[in-house]
Amino acid sequence: MSFDVDVARRLGDTEVACRIEPGEGLTVLFGPSGAGKTSVLNMVAGLLAPDAGHVRVGRELLFGEGCDVPPEQRRAGYVFQEPRLFPHLRVLANLGYGMRPDPGPLGFDETINFLGIGHLLDRWPRTLSGGEARRVAIGRALLSGPRFLLLDEPLSSLDRARREEIMAVIERLRDEVKLPILMVTHDRAEAERLGTRIVEMG
Question: Closest Cα partner for 29 from 193, 182, 156?
């Protein structure tokens, strides 16, 4: 399953346009801040409507030709730039929020083991390191039963050790779980290491 995206949207004085040719693996949207990379993720997720174009994932048309599938029906696992964990819920409850009866490609226990977060389940979000919070956010996305993942600057604001930790998780998602992934970064080294292909913007 792959992304097939051709979208355009005017945001203020800026025209955001992006073309992603169909292809397997992890696609990186690479470019400077302000190039519209996150806006493209939001168009794929259904949070922002393009002015023109189409969005397909696999064989399913999500936008275009008079079609606009609601965000909750697109089955996108979205990991935002900030983890956005609910501060009043422990990690276990955060993971369970939005979990589907068929919890993702790995199932609940395997997702916890895959991400190495079993020891965090009773913790409050405020007690987590940046890398731990990011892994929990990825876990919540995986447990929502996604057909594909959207990662917005998943390595931002992390120190070198935590960045390496999350890069290893993303590599395993790409190579072992084999979910289609669309990821945003402005770091060329990240793009070249993680991306099956790179789409440059800006």
Answer: 182
